[in-house]
Every structure is written in structure tokens, then in C-alpha cells.
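[Q] Does anyone have a clean C-alpha cell version of this?
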Amino acid sequence: MLSELLHDVLKWTESLGYLSGFAFIALYIISTIAFVPATILTLGAGLVFGVSLGSLYVFVGATLGAIASFLIGRYLVRDWIGKKIAGNEKFVAIDQAVAHSGLKIVLLTRLSPLFPFNLLNYAFGITGVSLKDYAIASVGMLPATVMYVYIGSLAGDVARIGTENQSTDTIKWVIRIIGFIATVAVTIYATQLARNAIAELND
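[A] Here you go.
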């Protein structure tokens, strides 16, 4: 159902002419805030707009949507989440670690498509990472964005977006490998920072 709806949305966006780019970015922002998986939209951008413009529109939409979710998490639901984690020293330690090296941690998670993008946007909002570092780290989304948009550009028709295509297997494996490496890196790095912060709390 959701997949069919997104395909219809892509067809509608494609029919808007010079307004299509703005409409696509707006839809991408909304989907990010609403926890809607944006894979089909990302792939569709390659078909509708081409690799260059498609990558640009996806990057702008994803970045603005991520920032909006981050701000919602920080200012609208922070108190509620804060009550849920009150007294949890481990979270306090991780929060402090992110505050000191937030840019690196966010950047590494952005490089990995294995981390839940929409959920992380809200989660980072309740950490100590600054909005500036959070926004800058969005550049980490570019490699996966370009590759997914390129895969979408090979579909040939909106109806085929998201279906398996043997010619894209190599690209998909590259994405998986990059994601795995980034996931391992961020896990090791964040764990070490958290341990150091916990050690400081116990001193």
C-alpha cells in the first residue's frame, strides 16, 4: 500500500514541471519527519530528475527533514524523553561523549545506511550535539544518496522503482560494504567515547 502510494506520488511530482523539484523536496521533508521510509523516493529521484538534480533534491530534502526532526526532538519532546531516561548514568555519559565529538559520531552514522535514519534524527535531538555540527555532518549522506539515485536512474520507468535489477547488484554490494565499515567504525568510536565519559563520572 505504502509502496503504491509513493509510486503515485512520484508520478504526480513528475507532472508538475518546473515546480516538481520544490514539491519533491517538500515531500521528502514530510516523509522524513513522519518516519516514512524514503528509499522509493530516493530511487525515484534518479528516474524523474536524473542523477545530478536527483541527488541534489534528495540531499536538500533529507537534510532539511533531518534538521526539522532534530529540532522537534530537542524542543518539543525532549522533556518527555528526559523523564524516561532520568537517572540513567550511561545515557548521561553517552550524551557527554556526543557533546564532545558529536560531528564525528553523526558523520559516521550518516555514512552508514544500516543506522535507522529517521529515528536517529530525533535521537540526536536529545543529545548534546550542536545543531551546527549536526547539520554539517549531513554531508555523510552524499555517497549513499548518489548511489541510490543512480540505481533509480537505471529503472527506466517509475513502476519499476524498487524492483530487482541484476545490473545494479555491484552498486548495491558497494553500498552494503561501505555501510558495514561505517557501522563498525561508529560502534567502536562511540563505545570508546562512552567508556571514557563513564570513567570520568566515576572518578
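[Q] Thanks! Anything notable?
[A] The chain has one domain: 2-202.
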